Amino acid sequence: MPLIELRDVVRHYQLGSVEVRALDGVSLSIEAGEFVAIMGQSGSGKSTLMNMLGCLDNPSSGLFLIDGADAGHLDADELAALRRERFGFIFQRYHLLPHLDARGNAALPSVYAGEGVAARGRRAEALLRRLGLGDRLHHRPNELSGGQQQRVSIARALMNGGQIILADEPTGALDSASGAELLALLRELNAAGHTVIIVTHDPSVAAHARRVIELRDGRVIRDAGTPPDHVPPARPAERPRERRGLQRLQVQWREAMATAWLSLKGNRLRTALSMLGISIGIASVVSIVALTSAARSTFEGEFASQMSGRIWLWTGNANLPQGLQPPPFTPAQADALAALPGVSGLMRERQTAVQARHGSREAFTQAMAANASLLADRRLKVSQGRDFNAYELSSGAQVILLDVEAAKKLFKTPEAAVGRSLLVSSGDAAGMGGVPVALPFTVVGVVESASQLGFSFGDDRLYVPDKTFRTKLDARATMGAFAVNLERDAEPQQVVAQIKHRLRALRGSEDFSMWVGDEAFRKMQTFNAAFAALLAGVGAIALLVGGVGVMNIMLVSVSERTREIGIRMAVGARQGDVRLQFLIEAVVLCCLGGLVGVALSWLAAQALNAAQQTLHVSVSWQALAVAFGVSSAVGLVFGTVPARRAAALSPVDALARE
Ligand code: ADP
Ligand code: MG
Q1: What integer pLDDT is reported at residue 427 of this predicted model?
Q2: Helix (H) or strand (E) run with residue 369 in it
Q3: What number of CA atoms fall less than 13 Å from residue 53's CA on the CB side?
Q4: Which end of the chain, N or C, is surrounded by fewer C-beta atoms within 10 Å?
Q5: Using a 6 Å cutoff on CB, does residue 15 contact ligand 1?
Q6: Strand ranges for 41-193 from DSSP E
Q7: pLDDT level of residue 306 (50, 70, 90 thresholds)
Q8: CA dihedral angle for residue 170, residue 172, residue 178, residue 184, rounded to 10 degrees
Q9: What share of the chain is helix, strand, coil (3-state, %, to 5)?
Q10: CATH 3.90.190.20 given to domain 4-243
């Protein structure tokens, strides 16, 4: 059975309305171990025939058999497998990969056969040594002479066995000495059992072959057939076993990673610029998320502690006739509300205008009645001195707490205030019998807002115990405003309805207003969430733009490396191998960009934290993981089109591209 058989093979190209018949009914058969030269003028169809024989191309019609099996209707990956297993190509212009050294180039075919790094390196080295390149293992193609490059490509052709060696004008680019050397090598290989088919237009080269096939206009015009004294080789050229499963997968990924890395490293500026797009996208998303979540946890925490669980009440509302001043709430009304279900207690806010004096310094301000829960209710903390003690709260002692502002006004610094005494006279002395008297008070402490954001219900105040307030400053027990504290699981709307109902009954009309903290809080939360989503959307758009940039660069990369793709396919790369290579490159590019982006936002967070204390922004490990995931996804999404385009290239077209 012939090794290769063609029966009436036609290969035509459609150029617009013109049909070019590059091969026009070629029939021939080649036995294993033959040395065949294909001759003919330029344009006679030699290369087309060679591509057909080498399974780089399918015939348009006719029969193409290898070892008697139909090879004319195989898909791309099946053809790739045939090339890997049986063929070794030697090209006129060597077609070595410029970024790999001699050893890497020679070893390339076995990458796609799934052979491990160490094993294929050893075999490639042995082959190169046999071809006299033992001292050139780590030279790149541009550091080798033409003859040396051609020998590297012979090593590559032999790497997977090279049962059939196809050489298209192999001496075309060589000087005569190197050409003679190469032909001697091919003869040697033929003697060792390899089938050698060379294409040439040079009769002196063809003279080395034992059989010459001549083409003209796509037809065979001379072919003496297999020499009658041809002896098939005793044993077929040995070839390494193809690996499958996990090991092949591992080799495939490793090669894709290594190639991606080399390519990214080889185009540093371009890599950096396309990374920049992704970095900016990731940095903006991560920073925005970190910033809004920091802002939310701080603001919402503050607002929640101030507002939620409380209903404020005050007299008067917009529906009342102009000028009508409703009477203040009485203690009985407040107590009635305190007894309602869902209400845990009241925050009575009683205050009066006072004049405070220390030496020549004085302040007109508000004095507020304080009970034991004053500091907690109003989110205050003692910054100097101490809080009122139980005795002071119950005895009517003339002690006072100052707000920081008030302390500064009266004593210059808060530190100076504690332990000193003040004269306080009630502005509304009418309630005390009409005589404004200045009473001495001892400052026990200075308070300030415990809120990180500095929220407080008014600055510049004095606080005196409730008992003292009622007996010494303002005897009226009525209130213009107070707040109802809700029980934990109370439904604010129900309590509001009950309060309304109850107060209307007690006061005779609805002459008061209410403000529910939880509602305002919830509204604020919704607004915050919407705002955060909007900002994150802006970041996502930045990321999208970065992704488009990566796609663009990858498309450029594919078209620049078309020949590389062709070479890889010629030595047996599957479409999946090529696809993976470009996909990995896009993903690596995006992940690097993502890492830089996270680093940038981390730096920005540190700078922001160093510049102010109100917000603490942190870039979490989760953010890192998410950024990594998102970058990979962007790489996958935007790398798919270029990768598919690369994998869909036909090896013949890709190789022909310069
Ligand atoms: P040779 O290698 O003998 O110089 P080729 O096999 O390269 O000849 O080409 C044979 C004929 O087929 C030529 O006329 C050429 O123009 C045509 N041809 C080859 N490849 C293509 C192609 N991709 N598209 C259109 N025509 C082609
Ligand atoms: Mg040609």
Answers
A1: 61
A2: strand 361-370
A3: 33
A4: C
A5: yes
A6: 61-66, 69-70, 87-90, 164-168
A7: low
A8: 40
A9: 50, 20, 30
A10: no
The answer to whether residues 350 and 464 touch, using CB atoms and an 8 Å cutoff, is no
456 lines ligand 1 (CB under 6 A): no
Tokens for 604? 């920005």
10 lines ligand 1 (CB under 6 A): no
551 neighbors 633 (Cβ within 8 angstroms): no
| 456 band by pLDDT with thresholds 50, 70 and 90 | low
Average pLDDT over residues 627-642: 91
- Taking the CA of 51 as reference, the closest ligand is 1
Q: Is 582 exposed, middle or buried (CB count within 10 Å of its CB: 0-12, 13-18, 19+)? A: buried
pLDDT number for residue 429: 47
Is residue 159 scored above 50 in pLDDT? yes
Which atom of ligand 1 sits closest to the CA of residue 199?
2
Q: Whole-angstrom Cα distance, residue 630 to residue 643?
A: 19
pLDDT in tens, 478-501: 777 788 888 878 888 888 899 999
Q: Which residue is closest in CA terms to ligand 1's atom 24?
A: 13
Q: For atom 1 of ligand 1, which residue has the closest CA?
A: 43
Distances (CA, A) of 56 to 74, 252, 540, 653: 11, 21, 44, 10
Helix, strand or coil, per DSSP, at residue 449: strand
* Cα–Cα distance, 257 to 261 (Å, whole number): 6
Confidence of residue 428 (pLDDT cuts 50, 70, 90): low
Q: Which of 437, 428, 417, 442 is nearest to 361 (CA)?
A: 417
- Dist. CA 565 → ligand 1 center (Å): 21
Q: Which residue's CA is the closest to the ligand 1 atom numbered 18?
A: 22
Pairing mode, strands 18-30 and 4-15: antiparallel
The Cα–Cα gap between 492 and 311 comes to: 8
Q: Is 513 left (phi over 0), alpha (psi -120 to 50) or beta?
A: beta
Q: What CA–CA distance (Å, rounded) separates 280 from 272?
A: 12
Q: What is the DSSP secondary-structure string of 36-79?
A: EEEEE-TTSSHHHHHHHHTTSS--SEEEEEETTEE-SS--HHHH
Q: Which amino acid is at 445?
A: G
* pLDDT at 569 > cutoff 70: yes
589: tokens are 């590019």
CA atoms within 13 A on the CB side of 164: 24
Given this model, what pLDDT does residue 430 score? 44
Q: How confident is the model at residue 135 (pLDDT cuts 50, 70, 90)?
A: very high
Degrees to nearest 5, angle at CA 444 with 439 and 447: 110
Residue 436 — pLDDT band, cuts 50, 70, 90?
Answer: low
